[in-house]
Design brief:
With 231 residues, the protein is mainly alpha-helical. It has twelve helices and two strands; from the N terminus they run ααααααββαααααα. A two-stranded antiparallel sheet has the order 1-2. A hairpin with a 4-residue loop joins strand 1 and strand 2. The protein binds a DNA duplex (21 and 21 nucleotides) through helix 3 and helix 6.
Length: 231
DNA sequence: AAGGAAAACAACCGCAACGAC
DNA sequence: CGTCGTTGCGGTTGTTTTCCT
């Protein structure tokens, strides 16, 4: 039986105090990021390691860029979401100074609504049925509509199988055809190397990982501006 | 000014991946 | 090669703030 990550009875929960923040920052500045499990005790914090890690990554790290998202950041998030789905850490990785939690929250509170207003289904980045042609859709935040309207990318190609098994099983086989089509669309819109649609439908776990790697690599090396050009 | 609703933000939880042994 | 411990991720919930009536 695995031990829980922290002893529940002796840990603080909820908002962090200034003193706690200070202890954590000082400890990490002195010792660096190390074993999160042992860090709280070493730093004299009554927190579980997970909580410390989250606090550091999301709020205390010196390289964080706080404040409002710029328009180009918004744009990039939308486009990356269309490509990657809810993989916030990957998306955040393309936005210097932003954390996955921040991006996720911003998506849920701002961008999701924004897309809905534009007549775009934020789940799949396609035009909603009741907005077959929205005069200005796609102007406000760039050309998200372009790919969004044609792709079914909330389940990005490389995660069609596996990660979304439950959703897929619910949707049934017709969705596979839909996803299948999305892959073709992605190829058209995003210029991303994806295995042929024929193999995609039956891609196994290993191939899926491989695809994921391919896309990750492309994102890793493609400058943001290049991505913008594609979308 | 007060109260309720909505939005925004912060943090927790559970699970999966990964590495060490 | 299997098991275990740790870390990281994504979903979700709780709290605070802002807006509206």
């Amino acid at each position: 039986m695995r031990k829980p990550c922290c002893e529940k009875q002796d840990t603080n929960k909820g908002a962090w105090s200034k003193q706690e923040d200070q202890k954590l920052v000082e400890y990490i500045q002195t010792h660096g990021e190390g074993c999160w499990r042992t860090l709280p005790q070493a730093a004299g914090l009554l927190r579980c390691g997970k909580s410390c890690r989250l606090r550091w990554i999301n709020y205390l790290r010196p390289d964080l860029k706080r404040g409002n998202f710029a328009e180009d950041e918004e744009d990039l998030i939308i486009k990356l979401h269309a490509l990657l789905g809810n993989r916030w850490s990957l998306i955040a990785g393309r936005l210097p100074g932003r954390t996955d939690n921040e991006v996720k929250n911003y998506w849920n509170s701002h961008l999701r609504r924004k897309l809905v207003k534009m007549g775009i289904d934020p789940n799949n980045h396609r035009l909603s049925h009741n907005h077959h042609r929205l005069p200005n859709a796609g102007t406000a935040s760039g050309s998200a509509t372009t790919s969004a309207s044609r792709s079914h990318a909330s389940h990005p190609p490389e995660k069609i199988q596996g990660e979304n098994d439950q959703a897929l099983s619910d949707a049934g086989s017709c969705l596979e055809a839909e996803n299948h089509r999305a892959m073709v669309d992605l190829n058209l819109d995003l210029s991303i190397t994806i295995p042929s649609p024929q193999t995609a439908a039956i891609v196994d776990e290993e191939e899926r990982r491989q695809n994921e790697y391919t896309i990750s690599r492309e994102l890793e090396f493609a400058p943001s501006s290049t991505l913008l050009l594609f979308m």
